[in-house]
Amino acid sequence: MTARKSGSRLESEIERCRSETQWDKIPELVRQLSAKLISNDDLGELLLGEAKLQQYLKENPIKQGTSPRGPRPRLQEVRKHLTAALDRGNLKPEYMQEASLIMAKLCYVEADYREALNQYGRVNLDEMQLVGAPVYRLSMIAEAYATKGLCLEKVPMASPSLSNRPADRDQEIITCYEKSGDIALLYLQEVEKALSAGIQNRSPKPGPVTQEQELGYFLETGLQRAHVIHFKNGNLTHGVGRFREILRAVETRTTQNLRMTIARQLAEILLRGMCEQSYWNPLEDPPHHSPLDDPLRHNPHIKDYALSRRPRIYSGENLFCPQENTEEALLLLLISESMANRDAVLSRIPEHNNDRIISLQSASLVYDLLTIALGRRGQYEMLSECLERAMKFAFEEFHLWFQLALSLMAAGKSARAVKVLKECIRLKPDDPTIPLLAVKLCIGNLHWLEEGERFAKIVIDMGEKAAEFRAKGYLAIGLVYSLKATDASLRGMQEEYQKKALSAFQRAQSLSPTDHLAVFYLALQLAVSRQIPEALGYVRQALQLQGDDVHSLHLLALLLSAQKHYHDGLNIIEMALSEYPENFILLFTKVKLETLCRGPEEALLSCKRMLQIWKSCYNLTNPSDSGRGSSLLDRAVADRRQLNAMSLPDFSDPETASHASSSLSGSEPVSPIFPLPSFYPPPKTESTQRPSSHAFCDHHAPRRRFSSASNLPDAFFHGFDSFIGVCSVHATSIAASRVEQALSEVASSLQSSAPKQGPLHPWMTLAQIWLHAAEVYIGMGKAAEATACTQEAANLFPMSHNVLFMKGQVAELRGNVDEAKRWYEEALSISPTHVKTMQRMGLILHQLQRYSLAEKFLRDAVQVNSTAHDVWNSLGEVLQAQGNDTAATECFLTALELEASCPILPFTIIPRSL
Amino acid sequence: MLAMDQGVVEEWLSEYKTLPETAVSSYAASLKDKGSLVPALYKVIRENYSDLLEPVCHQLFEFYRSGEPRLQRFTLQFLPELVWSYLSVTACRDPHCSGCIEALLLGIYNLEIVDKDGQSKVLSFTIPSLSKPSVYHEPSSFGSLALTEGALANHGLSRVVYSGPHLQRETFTAQNRFEVLTFLLLCYNAALSYMTSSSLQSLCQLSSRVSICGYPRQQLRRYKGISARLMVTSEFLVQLITGIHFALCNGEVDLGSKALDDVLYRSQLELFPEALLVGNAIKSSLHGATLKSNKEGTRSIQVEITPTASRISRNAVTSLSIRGHRWKRHESQEDSVDSPDSCPTGPIPEISVTGVSGERLANGEALRCRTEGEALGGATEVGVDPRGQEVRRQKSVRKHLEDGTPSAGRVQL
Fold first, then answer.
1. Three-state DSSP class for B129?
2. Kindly report the CA angle at A53 between A52 and A57, in degrees rounded to 5?
3. Residue B40: predicted pLDDT
4. What sequence ranges are listed for the domain Tetratricopeptide repeat protein 7 N-terminal (chain A) (predicted)?
5. CB B193 to CB A277 under 8 A?
6. Cβ within 8 Å, pair A327-B341
7. What letter would DSSP give residue B349?
8. Are B308 and A255 within 8 A, CB to CB?
9. Percent of chain A with pLDDT over 90
10. Can you tell me the mean pLDDT for A674-689?
11. Which residues contact B188 (CB under 8 A, 6 or more apart)?
């Protein structure tokens, strides 16, 4: 009784060892077994034969792509054991089958393929039970199918099956491999199940339990050979199908590497060889005729084979199934990435050099493919997050750093992009594109002029080496100086920067005479310094190079208006509008010119049309805007730290205080993300984004009191402020601009599918349309209508200094000087350097006969913007009233002179960007 | 143009007009047998002044409007050539001609932006997330993904992005030109597998020419068409690159790599991050791959049997192997600044260098378990996991002992 019991325990121990491929333990167990029961001698032979063959293969593995080497003396023993077991025939049928299978395998190893096939002929593989079979037998069957496939490939026309047509034979081979692969997957799943059950039942014994299972040559072949053949035959549909079957099987530890590779390969095929129209999803049947398959080859019709048991596949409710090739590629790459990332070799000791290179190569391939997939769909935000994870591989790896920088740039995360670009410059100091990209960001919404200057100088210092980029370097530094000139508060500084900018643009133009941008910025710079005829010459040249450039056309119109050729200017604007019908900056200029040329009624019609255009542009918001709310919230929280770090220098350094017009220059399209007053097109994003603004508000304690009256996030008023501040030439408050910067970072990062019509923020644009209408009404003396329009703008941005200024204007129109003064004071408390408000304030104080205070305001205003002729004029009036006639005369003369070259809107409303 | 070509085109023009409704499908299937037709049509499009251009454009539009996929693809194969023809004419500011090409392009665009019922089409794209189960994975197997803010924020969300609806366009303007053309290329790219090699070649040529005309590289390529610079947008270049990528991998190695280089050259000059990003990635991903150039245009996608065992030696320190490792905290100060951001949900105990760091990590792990449990719709995971965690910890310790690495940091057990 005891003997019997321990005998069955022994049997299960043997079974376990066979399943866990612990062949070295078998001889000892067989010895114990033969001591127990005589009738198991044959089983002993079988086991010893198997163990010795496996041991041999472990020590002399067959490599992929090589053939077995033929008989070996060590294998003689194996044959003896097996022959003994087979000849006596005392074994139970299933053990007989096993013996035949091992024998066949031995024949294959000895390169006797025909004999191997003979052995397989004796066992009906298809009838071997998969249900309830011990784990090791699954492996044996899987190997048998693979080996049979290998033999069939080796021996032409040796198929034991009846038909000898090549197509059928190919079909038989593939079916062998596919069955082998399926059963191998099942086997691996079962092993893992047994292992984890073992861990739970026993305390984790130290020992080979944790050792990773290695697939032998046969299982590896069985798993992969089928799809390799499919692809070799140009049969992409079946190859893809096979890939998908393997990937859908629940993963095991042993298949992880295989899955990582196959996932990447399938992604490659999806990205390189498929398109939306030729795609079918993993749960669909493949199309009968596909352009993916080689039409020249005859593709055998694949018969579906039946297995009594298949590997478990991922199942459950709400499984995500991709509907498009890029989606599937992306899913596969994310899976592959997570595994590649896990394998990142971190140690940098020389012994691990090779490992590191391997892990880097496999990871960078995955990241490149991710870039291709996400780039196609414009998902740069997500891409930048993925590439961020690649950074653990990136030490001294230029490609990864540069790709991260570009993705951050494309995602609108400018500040971080600049920092990463710095590292790229360090790694590749000779490449002029990198510093140029950095300048582009610096003079864009970051408005980091000092940094921008440094980057531009790197390019210039490269000299001839920078080749075609040299001109771009000069253009870049010219733009930096030009923006600095606009920012400077001292006239001397302004003039110095203007001079520098001018000479840089001239240099750029002489280096690259066919570049319309160089000529255009030269013209713009001349215009800003009021050299109108010269500017006209260059802008015409720019238009010859690039006839439909919107900014050149706009500048031409403004230059004509400076020469008081308003009608010509209007014609140009209308011509430009025929090419750019939805360009709001052009439309604003048009309203101004129309008021002068055709009277306020026409201008009002234009305002109305603008509202219609606004509606048609931004009413078409697509559903993804609604999803954005939450992501904005996430971003605001996530970016807070980054914002803190990046904008602190602005506080200490007024020189870098960003500037109003820069908000115009951002060419990135932005999307509507703010709540709207009731009767505008329905915003799809209420509630969610409001908390996000608090992230910005936090920096803003002193300003908070203004927002108490409103339910709108105050951050946006300041954004609006500095936008509308384009009308003034100088910077608004530093804090406001900092928020503006943060806003544009966030807003532009949401661009993916935003409307592309205009560079301005939609709600800012809308508010500005209302303010323009209000101005026209004020010009007509219609106070009630002007009030209504101002109120519309105030609903959007109640704390904007431009709105407050307009309220003051309306109050003046009504003859209510005290109220006007109050509005102007509020406007100035938000934007202390708003020139127009300062001028009106000065005039009111003049009326109230408070001359010295009036003079103070006007002198400050002139300091801020020395080309504002109406301020000079007002200053003259005040001085005259004080009896200071000489100074007054001088002011009047300056005003007169400036007025002669004054455009209808400041030249600086034209954006300056690389 | 040869009289023979003209004859072929004229026959094609008249044949379709007399075709009964029922025969359209078989006619579409027979189109590919007309060997000399496609080259003849290319000639018509290239010779801008041909009298045949207008009827040809008209018929191509009729093909597209028929809704029969094979006819639509027949038209689509000429898209690169049509786009080039249109762009080169606008660059020369040649007032006459190309009106019919413009009309054809706008016609296709206006057909593509609406669905069968004439409603504006909105294309959607789901961004897969590893935190949701899919046909290829279940989230729990990636349970050890880094618990970053981003991962938390996207947890369990599948994001869908949309493109559209797009505005109907009656005319081309400077403002909408590339918007329309980019959309058309998107449609072309959606049918890339069906495109003939002559169409792919024409796409590569279009890409090269658009990128280099008016720039010094034009001399290098010896292209003598127009010499004016063409304005482009980054999105347009990205769509071109997508097509070039396909061409490169499907037989057009020479023209494809030239085109890719030219587009990258232009993107550098224009400082377009998007196009540079995708172009660089393609270049780098094909770096090792050997691309076969063969005349039959065979798809050059091949795979080999790859070893399933990890190629990375077991004793190398990898992200995985140090996952359980507890680093000594040097920057306790910074940490206390950071933590409110990363974990806004609850108070985190003040962390000192000496004692509690183990506690803190366990805290984080517990948080992760919970989110996983939620993703699976049950809290059972939470109960099971501590054991798994225990195993993992033991393993990492063993690893350390095996590696013999001196424990630089404080290893908390």
1. coil
2. 115
3. 92
4. 2-387
5. yes
6. no
7. P
8. yes
9. 44
10. 32
11. B76, B79, B80, B195, B203, B243
Which of B128, B301, B313 shows the shortest C-beta gap to A273?
B301
The angle at the Cα of A789, spanning A612 to A747, to the nearest 5 degrees, equals 60
Work out the minimum CA distance from B3 to partner chain A, whole angstroms: 33
Among A18-32, A366-380, A543-557, whose mean pLDDT is lowest? A18-32
Residue B145 confidence (pLDDT): 54
The token pair that represents A515 in the structure block: 């570049």
Closest CA to A744 of A481, A514, A447: A447
Q: Is the pLDDT of residue A119 over 80?
A: yes
CB contact under 8 A, B305 and A220: yes
- Asked whether the predicted pLDDT for residue A755 surpasses 90, the reply is no
Nearest Cα to Cα of residue A99 among A114, A119, A113, A115: A119
Q: Which residues of A touch B149 (CB under 8 A)?
A: 634, 637-638
What digits encode the pLDDT tens for the residues A351-410?
888 888 888 888 999 999 999 999 998 999 999 999 998 898 888 899 999 999 999 999
- A513 residue type, one letter: P
- Picking from B137, B149, B312, the nearest residue to A638 by CB comes out as B149
> Inter-chain contact B246–A406, Cβ cutoff 8 Å?
no
What secondary structure letter does DSSP report for B162?
A: E
Cα A658 from Cα A722, distance rounded (Å): 9
What ipTM is given for this predicted complex?
0.82
Residue A644 scores a pLDDT above 50: no
Q: Fill in the DSSP letter of residue A688.
A: G
The b-or-e profile of B10-27 (16+ CB within 10 A means b, else e) is eebeeebeeeeeeebeeb
Residue type (1 letter), A657: A
- Residue pairs between chains A and B whose CB atoms are closer than 8 Å: 317
DSSP H helical ranges for B271-321: 273-285
Query: For residues A472 and A511, is the Cβ–Cβ distance under 8 A?
Result: no
Owner of token pair 């590289």: B217
User: pLDDT, tens digit, for every residue of A254-286?
Assistant: 888 889 989 999 999 999 988 999 999 999 888
- Whether residue A227 contacts residue A242, with contact meaning beta carbons closer than 8 Å, is answered with yes
Domain range summary for chain B, segments of one domain joined by +: 3-119+172-285, 317-403
Instruction: Output the average pLDDT for chain A.
Output: 79
DSSP label of B292: P
Measured over the CA atoms of residue A186, residue A189, residue A193 and residue A194, the dihedral's sign is positive
Task: Please list every residue in chain B whose beta carbon sits closer than 8 Å to the beta carbon of residue A263.
Answer: 136
CB contact under 8 A, B316 and A352: yes
Residue of A528 and A755 predicted with greater confidence: A528
Shortest CA distance to A630 belongs to which of B285, B142, B294, B155? B155
Q: Are strands B123-127 and B159-163 parallel, antiparallel or unpaired?
A: antiparallel
CA angle at A690 for the pair A686 and A696, rounded to the nearest 5°: 150
Residues of A in contact with B173 (CB under 8 A): 578-581
Residue B250 pLDDT greater than 70, yes or no: yes
Average pLDDT taken over every residue of chain B: 76
